[in-house]
Amino acid sequence: QVQLVESGGGLVQTGGSLRLSCAASGIIFSINAMGWYRQAPGKQRELVATITSGGRTNYVDSVQGRFTISRDNAKNTVYLQMNSLKPEDTAVYYCQSRLEIQLYDYVYWGQGTQVTVSS
Predict the structure, then answer these.
(1) Longest Cα separation, the chain
(2) Taking the C-alpha atoms of 87, 111, 49 and 81 in order, what is their torsion angle to the nearest 10 degrees?
C-alpha cells in the first residue's frame, strides 16, 4: 500500500519560511520522480516543483529562487523549503510520486497540507 504523508504546513507571515516534508512508503522511493503541487481555493492544482530520481529539479516561474525541492533517499522523504513566502502562495500543498514503466505512469498523491501566508 502506497502512502505519501505530508507535514510542515501552517500559518506564516509574509516573508516567512516553511519547510514541507513528504514521507513515502510502499514505493521504491529512489527510482521515483517526486513533485510538489498546490491548489488554492477556486483554482486548479498547479505544479510547484519536481525532482527526478537523479536529482534534477524544476520549478514553476512564480517560486523560482524562493523555493527549493530536495530529497533524501535514505529517509524516503522529499522536502520543499519555502522562503520569502507571499500571500499568493496560500494553498493546499500536495506531494506526488511518479514512476514510468513501459509507457505506463504510476502516480500517487498525498492528502495535502495547508499553507497559509498572512499579509
Answers:
(1) 47
(2) 60
Q: How deeply is 83 buried, as exposed, middle or buried, from its count of CB atoms within 10 A (0-12, 13-18, 19+)? A: middle
Q: Residue 53 burial by CB count (10 A; 0-12/13-18/19+): exposed, middle or buried?
A: middle
6 and 21 Cβ atoms separated by less than 8 Å: yes
* The three cell numbers locating residue 97: 510520486
Alpha-carbon distance of 3 to 108, in angstroms, equals 8
Best CA proximity match to 37, nearest among 88, 97, 83:
97
Amino acid found at 28: I
Please tell me whether residue 101 adopts helix, strand or coil conformation.
Answer: strand
pLDDT for 13-27, tens place per residue?
A: 999 999 999 999 999
